[in-house]
Design a protein that fits this description.
Strand order of the largest sheet: 3-2-1-4-5-9-8
Distance between the termini: 55 Å
Structural class: alpha/beta
Radius of gyration: 20 Å
CATH architecture of the largest domain: 3-Layer(aba) Sandwich
Number of helices: 12
CATH topology of the largest domain: Rossmann fold
CATH class of the largest domain: Alpha Beta
Number of domains: 2
């Protein structure tokens, strides 16, 4: 295996997402995916002396990126607890904008011991918060065959989910699956040369989503934006795969992640948001060339109605 090149993260669609917030110099904003701090720093540059920015992240690695700025408050927590911390800071109904960049940072992909990438051998961890919770190895070694099949089908959208789950259960009877190379050995019979990278990306995505309970956390966070945002406040979300994009799209259109629209007496859709961009925003060609990891990104912006 080749050694990874370590860098933290290049923020995706930086200008487009920050412009989507329509920042007021004295406003209050939340970056629920602080990470490398790129989006947060861009927001702080646009805030005045009385502006305020809260940054959420559960990964201890990001704490080295916290800016020394009196206007910034770092929240060491999963964004699924957005409501609780905004209530603690007496900010419920006071927030002018919330930004979520749902992608995994380059730091995670390029740090082999975190186990997020199939490019390097390392422990199968995949936890965003390395201080608690199950690892990817725990999932592979302890989940039932049926549970594994469901994980690969629901979160990886893999047609071979059942066969893959069966192969994993058989392999772990001989020895525990501990590293990315252990997993890759099991996956070899399933990988065609023409679509190898896509297949491996789907498998690793499925495990990562399960380990970090990403879909549940996303739904909770979106629900909390309804109470945290003030009327006219903006919700800006960058997604990277169809599962999370579908949830965000439905939520912005109808106010619930299932996309079940409520209608008023006249048949008009009752929704708490006004869509700012009816057509999804994607990275420009120049950005994709400089940062290939941005190619699957989709940006959606909505404004809370009065």
């Amino acid at each position: 295996m080749k050694e990874p090149v370590i860098s933290y993260h290049v923020p995706v669609m930086l200008n487009e997402s920050v412009e989507g917030l329509e920042i007021k110099p004295e406003g209050m904003y939340v970056d629920v995916t602080f990470g490398g701090g790129g989006h947060s720093r861009a927001i702080l540059e646009r805030l005045g002396v009385c502006g305020r920015l809260y940054g959420f992240d559960r990964d201890s690695d990001v704490e080295k990126n916290i800016p020394s700025d009196a206007r910034f408050v770092f929240v060491r927590s999963n964004f699924r607890y957005l409501y609780h911390f905004m209530r603690y800071h007496k900010a419920i109904g006071q927030v002018d904008g919330i930004l979520a960049d749902l992608g995994v940072s380059s730091h995670h992909f390029d740090t082999c011991e975190r186990g997020f990438s199939f490019r390097f051998d390392g422990c199968l961890d995949m936890r965003m918060n390395t201080r608690s919770g199950r690892t990817a190895a725990d999932v592979l070694n302890t989940c039932t065959e049926e549970s594994l099949a469901n994980i690969f089908y629901m979160y990886g959208e893999l047609k071979t989910a059942r066969k893959l789950a069966s192969a994993i259960v058989c392999a772990r009877m001989a020895k525990n699956i501990k590293t990315t190379d252990d997993l890759l050995d099991i996956l070899k019979p399933f990988t065609g040369k023409d679509k190898e990278k896509k297949f491996l990306a789907q498998v690793f995505q499925a495990l990562r989503i399960e380990v970090n309970d990403e879909m549940s956390a996303l739904k909770k966070m979106l629900e909390h934006t309804l109470t945290a945002l003030k009327p006219g406040g903006r919700l800006v979300v960058i997604t990277y795969h169809s599962l999370e994009d579908r949830v965000v799209k439905n939520f912005m259109k109808t106010g619930n992640y299932k996309g079940e629209a409520e209608h008023d007496f006249y048949g008009n859709i009752h929704t708490p948001f006004r869509l700012i961009n009816s057509k999804v925003i994607v990275p420009r060609e120049e950005e994709v060339e400089k940062n290939p990891r941005s190619r699957s990104a989709k940006l959606r912006v909505a404004e809370k109605m009065a």
